[in-house]
Amino acid sequence: MTDITIALSGNPNSGKTSMFNNLTGAHQKVGNWPGVTVEKKEGHCKYKKHNINVVDLPGTYSLTPFSIEEIVTRDFIIKEKPDVVVSIIDSSNLERSLYLAMQIMETGQPMVLALNMTDVAKSKGIKIDAEKLSALLDIPVVSTVGNKNKGTNRLIAAVIKEVEAFSLEKTGRDIKYSKEVENCISLIIDHLQQNTPDNNIFSYRWTAVKLLENDELILKNLQENQSVLEMSAKVRQRIKDFYQEDPEIVLTEDRYGFIAGITKEVISHSNKKRVDISKNIDLVLTNRLLGFPIFIFFIWAMFQLTFTLGAYPMEWLDSGITVFSLFLGKILPGGLLKDLLIDGIIAGIGSVIIFLPNILILFFCIALFEDTGYMARSAFLMDRIMHMIGLHGKSFIPMLMGFGCSIPAVMATRTLESKKDRILTILIIPFMSCSAKLPVYIVLAGTFFAANAGTVIFCLYLIGIALAIISGRIFKSKLLKGEDSPFVMELPPYRMPMIKSLIVHMWDRSKMFLKKMGGVILIGSIIIWTLSYFPKNITYSMDYENKIAQLKVEYSQKTDLPNHVEKFENKIANLQRQKEKERIEKTYIGKIGKAIEPVFQPLGIDWRASVAIVTGIVAKEVVVSTMGILYGVGDQKSEALSKALQSSDMTPLSAISLMLFVLLYLPCIAALFSIWKETSAQWALFNLFYTTTVAWCVSFLVYQTGRILGFG
Question: Above 90 in pLDDT, residue 497?
């Protein structure tokens, strides 16, 4: 077995992610590139006798080191020297895609071109002669359709063949610049060969071209070699004098001239009148009048689907957990361990894990928006609204991702060019309802607004967006003043999503939810149970056991038993609930809850829900598991939590107040840490205090206004 490293490069929206998913499937890991906050994707696959490591480089349009993405891509190709660079080409935009490919080809790295999205090109009447393109560039060219997984095996075979055949003498065809530029390149190469050791530079020709372009990183690498720098400055001036243009512009024009010659040779257009399907769909979906209502409908449908369709597997999971809990209850001897396992761990984790189907459906819908190309349209539609807060539509994409999880949403702001835009977008992302808040909404909305739960949840998401916009307007006018950035965003063509790709995206994002089951939520459940279990020596206000025994005696003396069964069972159940309520109030968690209750009492939130809110700082999923423990549902079905909430002092109005507070208060610790990393400690602390203050004020206003209007 041999190990091969492949680097995938390409423009944004060229189908690079689909190709990465085709090659690696579920064998992926995501992190950050060393030293920079840009997402790093790696995966692996096996092909015959080869272990293939696939690195998905950030999407860029060139290797000019301006953006972090361009620097990361270039550094990896030059310093890490992958065995093969696979350049993913958008066949419907060959000229634009080839510019990046030509720059990579100049580095001399082994290379394979993947002519991707050939179906889209065909629908536009574009036909590309792959064999001729391969001959002109002297590198392998493979036609693929990434979102349909067509051509993937041919691509791997071409990569293996290129690795086995590659030698330092075979590096693909050099780009031929104009005669004067070629003379200058030759002069610099000669000077480099005489004055620079071989191991100090990557490639003589590539370094010469970069010196002509006044590349900052190359200049920095050669800063100790003054003769080379002086020589390159002279030839740059020579080109400038000759063409009356900066050398960078001259070289760019020559590259595009070279590409234009290639495209003229390999592209042919069909004479039939083509129908641009994406353009026709956009006439409706991005229409000034229809586009926004359709977008709102899609978002509403997403949450309605999440609640209604997710209810069925949620019940199956619920039943499975109940059966498992009853099974443990029968086989385990009574005692501390049994109580910990059933009332602590299973009640805590079980009350959260049943929402996994809802989370999966939500992430599937978000992946569907991304893979079809509709996500970019949502940014386009929201552009006008986002301008109200001094942002543009591109900022809405991280906000929409915030519906899944705040952490990747905060990281997604790296695509924004302006630092102020990044900070402003990060500050309002916590108002988006992440998937961790969804279980809280489902429990409360399902309990108090069962008939309209989906609509209630949808309204909560809209409130979050509205408050994000209001807050953004305040921040822009007071804290982050500056000119609005122009909105330039490419609208990719609509594509039929590939089921495999959708499942990979959905699973990748859901893994974080599952990891919390064995980490934060497990630890949180044990801590909450411990605090609610001790101390054991509690003095009750009345002798509940004696009272229950008296009722049973009284019950046994009744002659007309059938008429009194329900009445006596209710009395006994009420006494047992009163005893459990008093017991929890006198435990450590009860004392903590009573201490913080005055802060939340004006919001209609009792001490148990107050404790749940505080534990939710660690992870929002813990809110539900805490309520499951504190409301004493124990080893019963989780629907017992709904019954316990209905029989408590909580009303529909206080449930709305609680949902609003959970929607708006500070994000989880992991999200706060992410904000800290992407901005600063000061902005993270500001976000903590601001979101919590807004949450308290909004919940107070809604609850007190509702009481005045008689809804309490």
Answer: no
Beta bridge partners of 6: 54, 84
Q: How many CB atoms lie within 10 A of CB 193?
A: 11
Span of 95-109, 134-148, 180-194, 611-625 with lowest mean pLDDT: 611-625
Backbone phi and psi for residue 44, each to the nearest 5 degrees, phi listed first: -145, 155
244-277: per-residue pLDDT in tens? 888 888 888 888 888 888 888 888 877 554 456 7
For strand 126-128 and strand 267-269, is the pairing parallel, antiparallel, or unpaired? antiparallel
Q: How far apart are CA 710 and CA 703, in angstroms?
A: 11
**Predicted confidence (pLDDT) per residue in 277-296, tens digit:** 777 888 888 887 888 899 88
Q: What's the token pair of residue 467?
A: 């408050």
Between CA 149 and CA 54 the distance in angstroms is 16
Long-range contacts of 414-419 (CB under 8 A, 24+ apart): 414/37, 414/38, 414/68, 414/678, 416/485, 417/485, 418/482, 418/485
75: burial class by Cβ within 10 Å (0-12, 13-18, 19+)?
middle
Give me the domains of the chain, ranges plus CATH numbers: 2-165 (3.40.50.300), 179-269 (1.10.287.1770), 291-478 (no CATH), 517-534+551-708 (no CATH)
Give dist(CA 230, CA 211) in Å, integer: 11
DSSP string, 36-63: S--EEEEEEEEETTEEEEEEEPPP-S--
Containing 6, the helix (H) or strand (E) segment is strand 2-10
Place of tokens 């978002």: 299
CA–CA distance, 97 with 106 (Å, rounded to integer): 15
Instruction: Determine contact, residues 642/314, Cβ cutoff 8 Å.
Output: no
β-strands 84-90, 141-143 pairing: unpaired
